[in-house]
Specification:
The complex is a heterodimer of chains A (452) and B (232).
Chain A (H helix, E strand, L loop, with lengths): L2 H14 L1 H38 L5 E6 L28 H8 L4 E6 L1 E9 L2 E9 L2 H5 L5 E4 L9 E5 H6 L12 E9 L6 H11 L3 E14 L14 E3 L1 H5 L16 H4 L6 E5 L5 H10 L2 E4 L5 H40 L1 H9 L4 H44 L12 H27 L3 H6 L2
Parallel strand pairs in A: 4-9, 6-8
Antiparallel strand pairs in A: 1-10, 1-11, 2-10, 3-4, 3-7, 5-8, 6-9, 7-8
Chain B lengths: L6 E12 L2 E13 L4 E6 L5 H9 L6 E6 L2 E2 L5 H10 L1 E5 L10 H11 L4 H14 L15 H13 L5 E5 L7 H17 L3 E5 L3 H7 L2 E6 L2 E7 L2
Parallel strand pairs in B: 3-8, 3-9, 6-7, 7-8
Antiparallel strand pairs in B: 1-2, 1-4, 4-5, 9-10
Classes of the chains: A alpha+beta (452), B alpha/beta (232).
């Protein structure tokens, strides 16, 4: 038999039992549709995260923070393990440290990681956000991509940069209109110092923490693209101010709750973390070594790339497992359809053999039918998966846009997913067709020809 | 020099087993047929006629004994070789016609060509020609249910002849037909036998038909040949 005849026969035989064929194909379609949606969702999330990481160059960062007191390694200049130090030695993450680090080869910039929670009030809307303290030179270095306005300068007074996303949440769709506008930042403070004993007593009596709210006025000078610059930490910041402004604000630090119990003198010992932006990932290891030799601890996202990839693989496997449930049900449907078809066409199989069909011909005829179900189910499943993904994407984006989140493709359809889904569907269908096919090939023509 | 017979069976035996029960369908059947013979097989129900026919058609294998067709040992062929034998050397017609109910007359006639790897256009052309020969061209697009018994059997004959076989095996071809149509069908087989030198082996209950058309007739009883007669 010719391949073209097998294909024609399979479609023509399936068409003779339209309802059953359509229902079986429908089962495969749902299975493949679910699998495709799951995979494209996994891929979409992976793409979004990877693109954001790449866009913000998060792999080019090394974060430096002090060791805890009891295991702090204080190197001596006589220590042969410590490389010769060119810059001023410092165990504290202060501005001197930042200046020293900036001069090291491969370092583009360095800035302290300072963020604090605050309520942002603008355009008669109030939203909770993280305020990031970012020096003016870092802001102007091009790390931050602006949609409107400009980066702040040291000479600016009470200047602030806000993300486009937060503006949208505050019902501002044109970022340009926010430039030059006044915006209010309210911080939460708690004073547990000895000078505040009466309030502490109130707290101990169960009347709540002695929180108070402080408000500060700023002028918007710039609006960032999307969620804006966030530094190496996978935490989004929507508002940026200069260190000089931050120092004058009473606030709770997000980086350490122990700040609450530290005196201002203790806090003056330095920043809790400094971010170092490198011109290339090749400088990550040398910088880490250098910083660790100086007694600091380091964190680089690039070191966790494999873990991130493993995480994506695990997520995809989980989504695949869910999709496979639907595929398994569809495969059972194919087995059922094919077994039914063989029982109904029992006599026809006998006739086939009587007129010269070999067992192989009979097998192929039924395998092509299974494959045709898989092919049609695969193509339709792909279309269904795409349509469902589009619909979910539109619905989610509609609701997210009301929260000020820019449009994101939560699903990603790659060429390998399109081709892979159809091939997978055919393979699953062929596998499901193996048992019925073997059964068809084993039909005894003598018995089948007598069958009514 | 005496040439080998066209079809020769020697001590052909077929025993069916079902658990511990064994049924001997045919026993030690030895036959010789020459090419172009019209050979009749008769006997009561359960005498082993159809079993003998299935063995000659290569649909079944003997428990013991041998079948030779044109000197080739059919009883020793493997499954694929038997399929080729059925495809190219044997045509079969049956009492219940055995047409595929969902196919048209044309599709049924063209069906064997599908397995012979003939292209679709050629299949249709040959099937139309064959239907024309049996006088059914005008009925080519009808399904078996829309044809009379005689028309269905003529369609089956056309299908049996489409691969130009050397032997036509007819298992009670008139069993479901009235006497007039029965005679017409056997007449068609006789014409083919005479004009195309086609070897015809026909099973029938109707001894009068065999007496009229067959050269040789064997009588089977309980799986054994009890009588051989040369009619003409």
């Amino acid at each position: 038999m010719r391949i073209s005849d097998f294909i024609e026969q399979s479609f023509s035989n399936l068409w003779k039992k339209k309802l059953r064929t359509v229902l079986t194909i429908f089962g495969v379609m749902i299975g493949i549709g679910a699998l495709v949606s799951m995979f494209s969702f996994g891929q979409g999330i992976q793409d979004n995260i990877t693109n954001t990481f790449n866009e913000l160059q998060l792999f080019n960062y090394v974060s430096v923070y002090p060791r805890s007191e009891n295991n702090q390694k204080i190197p001596h200049s006589e220590d042969p393990n410590v490389p010769e130090q060119s810059g001023p030695y410092s165990q504290i993450l202060d501005d001197d440290f930042i200046r020293y680090v900036t001069e090291i080869e491969g370092v583009e910039s360095a800035f302290p990681e300072v963020r604090f929670p605050a309520m942002i009030r603008f355009n008669e809307e109030e939203r909770f956000s993280l305020v990031q303290v970012l020096p003016a030179d870092i802001c102007q270095s091009g790390l931050m991509k602006l949609r409107a306005g400009r980066a702040y300068k040291p000479a600016d007074s009470n200047a602030l940069i806000i993300s486009d996303m937060l503006l949208r949440r505050m019902k501002i769709k044109e970022p340009q209109t926010a430039i030059g506008q006044q915006i209010e930042i309210s911080t939460l403070t708690v004073d547990l110092s000895l000078s505040n004993i009466p309030n502490i007593v109130t707290f101990l009596r169960g009347k709540g923490l002695p929180f108070s709210r402080e408000s500060y006025q700023f002028t918007i000078v710039g609006v960032t693209e999307k969620m804006g610059f966030a530094g190496p930490m996978p935490v989004r910041s929507d508002v940026f101010i200069m260190p000089a402004e931050s120092e004058n604000m009473k606030k709770l630090s997000l980086t350490s709750i122990w700040d609450l119990f530290q005196s201002s003198q203790q806090q003056a010992k330095g920043y809790s973390m400094v971010n170092i932006k490198l011109s290339s990932t090749k400088y990550v290891e040398p910088i880490k070594e250098k910083m660790e030799d100086r007694g600091f601890r380091t964190f680089a996202l690039v070191d966790h790339l494999e873990e991130i990839k493993t995480g994506f693989i695990l997520m995809n496997m989980f989504l695949f497992a869910i999709g496979m449930i639907a595929i398994t049900v569809a495969a059972l449907g194919i087995i059922n359809t094919m077994v039914m078809s063989i029982l109904e066409r029992y006599k026809e199989i006998g006739i086939m053999k009587a007129v010269g069909a070999s067992d192989g011909d009979v097998k192929k005829i039924f395998l092509f039918e299974s494959g045709a179900i898989g092919f049609l189910g695969g193509v339709l499943g792909l279309i269904l998966g795409w349509l469902v993904s589009m619909l979910i994407n539109q619905i989610v984006n509609y609701f997210m846009s009301r929260q000020g989140v820019p449009y994101i493709d939560y699903f990603s359809f790659r060429w390998w997913l399109v081709i892979g889904a159809i091939i997978f569907s055919i393979l699953i269908s062929l596998a499901a067709g193996i048992y019925p096919t073997m059964r068809a090939a084993r039909v005894d023509p003598v018995v089948a020809l007598r069958h009514d | 020099m005496i040439s080998d017979p066209f079809v020769k069976t020697e001590n052909l035996t077929r025993i069916y087993s079902s658990g511990t029960i064994k049924v001997t369908a045919i026993k030690d059947v030895t036959l010789s047929l020459n090419q172009g013979q019209f050979f009749g097989i008769t006997g009561a129900s359960g005498s082993g006629k159809s079993t003998l026919m299935n063995l000659l058609a290569g649909l079944d294998r003997p428990t013991s004994g041998s079948i030779k067709v044109e000197g080739k040992l059919i009883s020793e062929l493997d499954k694929d070789e038997l399929a080729l034998y059925r495809r190219h050397q044997v045509g079969m017609i049956f009492q219940s016609f055995n047409l595929v109910s969902s196919y048209t007359a044309l599709e049924n006639v063209a069906f064997p060509l599908l397995f012979a790897g003939v292209a679709k256009k050629e299949r249709i052309k040959q099937a139309e020609l064959m239907l024309e020969k049996v006088g059914l061209y005008s009925r080519k697009d009808h399904r078996p249910a829309e044809l009379s018994g005689g028309e269905q059997q003529r369609t089956a004959i056309a299908r049996a002849l489409i691969n130009h076989p050397k032997i036509l095996l007819a298992d009670e071809p008139t069993g479901n037909l009235d006497s007039k149509t029965s005679r017409q069908i056997v007449q068609t087989l006789s014409d083919l036998n005479k004009k195309q030198d086609l070897t015809v082996i026909m099973i029938s209950h109707e001894e009068s038909l065999l007496d009229e058309f067959a050269n040789d007739i064997i009588h089977l009883q309980d799986g054994e040949v009890i009588q051989e007669e040369r009619v003409r």
